[in-house]
């Protein structure tokens, strides 16, 4: 007689359901821990920056990489301290003045708008949302809390980036060992390619931010706009977030210029538009496109998608994440799955 408790073969349908459920749980876990994962990615960018600074010392001075990384950290700290010593006080004064001038400029702009029918209609819509002073009073504590959280997160990213920079093989090897043995060599190649692409993108981005910040600051100084150094710093930092950052960084300068008169406003608009055109038609083709091949449409949709899925941090890291995804798709899907190695 056959046993009533004979073993049955596994049900393939149940296996697929289990795999699908595991993938759903994994996706929910990733979304839940999105901020932590993005901070970890920020640490990777910090490590990439340090290696980019250390590479010239390794190649040209034949310095061992640990010592080159130590020199890069010391040089970065000294350069930051020197910049703060030379320009920090003036920038802090201008930023403080900016925080006082913008509300005054907004009140003056409100007065000018109220004199026209269209301007009065716009002001009515804004007042329906909430009065500006009340909004500031409500947002003040939240901004202070968010600033403290951002400072703590920046410290975590910085120290984690130092660990990653000085011991990259430890963490790279750990990631590679999570894959099957037959995939490990290719996985390491793909990860190294992602690191190289991030290195090129980061160097190009820093050059672009510097050029836009200097161009905007000088242009606003010539146009007679108050606090041109602070506005130039804001414009340069805004370049880190494509599309959205440059547009948002123009708002303080335009508000200040509007309070100084329509002529100043017109010249300020010319400065911002000129800086954007230089960035789009000169800086980006000569710097960024030579560093990493990432289509502009991909960048735009990456910013939108990351903003919807992951919030402000997703927008902040949208472009470097798009660089990594672009490299992975090209190497893993196009080259390995499809077998098209024409762009390898």
Map the helices and strands.
Elements: H1 12-32, H2 34-60, H3 65-113, H4 117-129, H5 132-166, H6 168-177, H7 184-223, H8 228-238, H9 244-260, H10 262-291, H11 296-310, H12 312-316, H13 318-337
Keywords:
globular; mainly alpha; 13 helices
Compose a concise summary of this entry.
With 344 residues, this protein is mainly α. Helices cover 85% and strands 0% of the residues.
Provide an overview of this structure:
The chain is built from 13 helices and no strands. By secondary structure, it is mainly α. It has one domain. It is globular.
Provide the β-strand percentage band.
under 5%
What assembly state would you assign to the polypeptide chains in this entry?
single chain
Helix content: over 70%
Q: Class by helix and strand content? A: mainly alpha
Low-confidence stretches: 130-140
**Biggest β-sheet, characterized?**
none
Radius of gyration: 25 Å
H and E string: HHHHHHHHHHHHH
The number of domains is 1
The total strand number stands at 0
What's the overall average pLDDT, rounded?
76
């Amino acid at each position: 007689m056959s046993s009533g408790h004979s073993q049955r073969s596994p049900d393939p349908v149940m296996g697929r359901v289990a795999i699908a459920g595991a993938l759903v749980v994994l996706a929910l876990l990733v979304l839940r821990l999105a901020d932590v994962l993005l901070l970890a990615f920020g640490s990777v960018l910090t490590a990439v920056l340090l290696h980019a600074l250390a590479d010239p010392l390794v190649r040209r001075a034949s310095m061992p990489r640990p010592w080159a990384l130590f020199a890069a950290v010391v040089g970065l700290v000294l350069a930051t301290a020197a910049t703060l010593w030379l320009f920090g006080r003036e920038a802090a004064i201008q930023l403080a003045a900016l925080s006082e001038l913008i509300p005054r400029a907004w009140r003056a702009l409100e007065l000018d708008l109220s004199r026209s029918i269209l301007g009065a209609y716009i002001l009515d819509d804004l007042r329906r949302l909430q009065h500006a002073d009340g909004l500031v009073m409500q947002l003040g504590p939240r901004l202070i809390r968010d600033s403290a959280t951002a400072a703590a997160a920046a410290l975590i990213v910085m120290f984690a980036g130092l660990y990653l920079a000085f011991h990259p093989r430890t963490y790279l090897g750990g990631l590679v060992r999570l894959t099957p043995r037959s995939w490990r060599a290719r996985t390491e190649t793909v990860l190294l390619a992602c690191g190289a692409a991030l290195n090129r993108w980061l160097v190009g981005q820093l050059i672009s931010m510097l050029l836009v910040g200097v161009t905007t600051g000088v242009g606003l100084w010539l146009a007679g706009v108050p606090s041109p150094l602070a506005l130039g710093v804001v414009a340069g930092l805004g370049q880190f977030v494509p599309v959205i950052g440059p547009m948002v960084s123009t708002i303080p300068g335009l508000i200040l210029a509007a309070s100084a008169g329509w002529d100043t406003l017109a010249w300020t608009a010319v400065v911002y538009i000129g800086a954007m055109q230089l960035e789009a038609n000169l800086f980006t083709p000569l710097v960024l496109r030579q560093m990493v091949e990432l289509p502009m449409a991909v960048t735009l949709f990456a910013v939108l998608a990351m903003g919807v899925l992951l919030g402000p941090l997703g927008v902040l890291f949208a472009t470097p994440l798009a660089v990594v995804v672009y490299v992975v798709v090209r190497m893993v899907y196009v080259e390995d799955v499809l077998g098209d190695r024409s762009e390898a």
